[in-house]
Prior knowledge:
It contains 15 helices and 16 strands. It is of the alpha/beta class. It has one domain (15-385): Aldolase class I (TIM Barrel, Alpha-Beta Barrel), CATH 3.20.20.
Amino acid sequence: MAEWIGIGRRARRCYGFDEVALVPGMVTVNPNEVDTSWTIAGKKFQVPILAAAMDGVVDVKFAIAMGKFGGIAVLNLDGIQTRYENPDEVLKQIASASPQEATKLVQSVYLNPVKEKLIAKRIKEIKAAKVPAVVSCIPQNAQKFAEIAQEAGCDIFVVQSTVATVRHISTEYKILDLAKFCSSLKIPVIFGNCVTYDVALELMEIGASGILVGIGPGAACTTRGVLGIGIPQISSTVDTAAARDYFFKRKGKYIPIITDGGMRIGGEICKALAAGADAVMVGSAFARAEEAPGRGFHWGMATSHANLPRGTRIQVGTSGTLQEILFGPAKVDDGSQNLVGALKTSMGSLGASNTKEMHDVEIIIASSIQTEGKVFQVGQRVGMGK
Length: 386
């Protein structure tokens, strides 16, 4: 697989969404009869699309709305919702800041400490609407926050960092023992993010209920530019899904893979599932919803780093309601709305009756897939030319 890139050094070729296409098979299925549901730790969800734990995307109201539609919206416990009694005022400031002021403002906003009472309050607010409460935090806060979250009725806990590994080395702070952490909780734990077979397998072996896949592909993330790390999402999904399948054959336990980031439109979500994902996590697509707290703005989780911000605030605009983004009817021509409808239509065209059958469809390398025959769309900046 690897090619020589210089004397004594080889590198393997990896692929992203724009470089591949899906091939229809011998059978087609009525899109209205396909099953888009997925399961994690025995919990079944009809929508295999999670809203990312980002402050411009998910607040309590958004989490409730997403839950009522059969999906998951992950609330960021390290974010504005748990640092401020009235987070809406802070979100207004960020949305109204100039591009030059935005990063500095976000850094200052996140200096205010997390209030533990707000963790329980936000979770209880979500649970009061009778929808699942799913929350996320960084490893350094996981032990303390997870205990509070579990007590408050949290359904799934996510431990998320730029790069997640079972074996972390540090003398500066106490390291979270992931295996002990999993065994100490009564609720499922999702770990992220990773991009390789070996790391995904180790995370499964210590008790993960799900794995987030992706380093740096998000629309508001600059990690790949600042740190130079990451693997394109098609290859990282294929590799980690292979670890899932090996683990299932060996242990009889199926750990879902969630491709996280880099998907703007329905076709990319379809490609992620074909590459082996059980579900996907997206941010920018939902940041454009009328219900999103960011008011048409979106910023990366690592933006607030005090010394090395690795995200930027971007303006994505507001394109429609959450219902339109998930189920249509689409009012735009770029594939960013009716994501579930796009998935159902793709599954039907590919002959996949459910999301697991999507894992078996043929994928081809197709570098011209985005541009072939699209000269007018590109020239007029419509449809696929946007």
